[in-house]
């Protein structure tokens, strides 16, 4: 396996999209005349497929009706901020400068991955991206890309890394703590992407 390809999850790993996701949900709910949902209700479900988040925060809502309103808000209106997570650009620049290839694998709808990366100012540092993959499905593009590492904030990201034969590097920037991420198979746990260069260097020794 090559050691020069590093995979990344998107939301809450590379991109802080919390505000944009929540505000896009709220925009869709207003269009559908659904009562507002507090932002805290979304926190445990970031990183899950859109339809699953919907059922968690507004059970019984018809996804077929909801998704077009959400897509219009997220893709066209772009409410709220969607910036880089702390240390994200510096980590990607370090990988590029050290001849690594960067691949993003996300549960987010494929065309929207590019929107999120561009808005966060990271698009120029990513070599390839894959959307519409959640949990163990992420192992498929990771294997195809021969990724040596997969960086994510979710326990499902660590499971996918293991299935792909990659080393999972967990960032405690999402809903899961260090213990849960290690129990899910993380080879390393870091506080932020600022620690990624040192961690990869150590794991390659």
From TrEMBL:
<dbReference type="GO" id="GO:0008967">
    <property type="term" value="F:phosphoglycolate phosphatase activity"/>
</dbReference>
<dbReference type="InterPro" id="IPR050155">
    <property type="entry name" value="HAD-like_hydrolase_sf"/>
</dbReference>
<dbReference type="InterPro" id="IPR036412">
    <property type="entry name" value="HAD-like_sf"/>
</dbReference>
<dbReference type="InterPro" id="IPR041492">
    <property type="entry name" value="HAD_2"/>
</dbReference>
<dbReference type="Pfam" id="PF13419">
    <property type="entry name" value="HAD_2"/>
</dbReference>
<dbReference type="InterPro" id="IPR023198">
    <property type="entry name" value="PGP-like_dom2"/>
</dbReference>
<keyword id="KW-0378">Hydrolase</keyword>
<protein>
    <submittedName>
        <fullName>HAD hydrolase-like protein</fullName>
    </submittedName>
</protein>
<dbReference type="InterPro" id="IPR023214">
    <property type="entry name" value="HAD_sf"/>
</dbReference>
<dbReference type="GO" id="GO:0006281">
    <property type="term" value="P:DNA repair"/>
</dbReference>
<dbReference type="GO" id="GO:0005829">
    <property type="term" value="C:cytosol"/>
</dbReference>
């Amino acid at each position: 396996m090559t050691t020069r390809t590093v995979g990344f999850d998107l939301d809450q790993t590379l991109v802080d999209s919390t505000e944009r996701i929540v505000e896009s949900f709220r925009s869709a709910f207003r269009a559908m005349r659904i009562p507002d949902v507090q932002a805290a209700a979304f926190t445990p479900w970031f990183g899950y497929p859109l339809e699953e988040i919907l059922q968690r925060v507004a059970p019984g809502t018809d996804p077929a009706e909801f998704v077009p309103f959400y897509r219009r808000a997220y893709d066209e209106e772009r409410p709220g901020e969607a910036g880089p997570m702390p240390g994200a650009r510096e980590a990607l620049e370090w990988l590029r400068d050290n001849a690594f290839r960067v691949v993003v694998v996300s549960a987010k709808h494929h065309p929207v991955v590019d929107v999120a990366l561009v808005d966060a100012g990271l698009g120029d540092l990513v070599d390839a991206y894959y959307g519409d993959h959640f949990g163990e499905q992420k192992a498929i593009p990771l294997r195809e890309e021969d990724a040596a590492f997969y960086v994510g904030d979710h326990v499902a990201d660590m499971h996918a890394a293991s299935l792909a034969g990659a080393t999972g590097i967990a960032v405690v920037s999402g809903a899961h703590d260090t213990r849960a991420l290690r129990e899910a198979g993380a080879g390393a746990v870091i506080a932020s992407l600022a620690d990624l260069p040192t961690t990869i260097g150590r794991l390659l020794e």
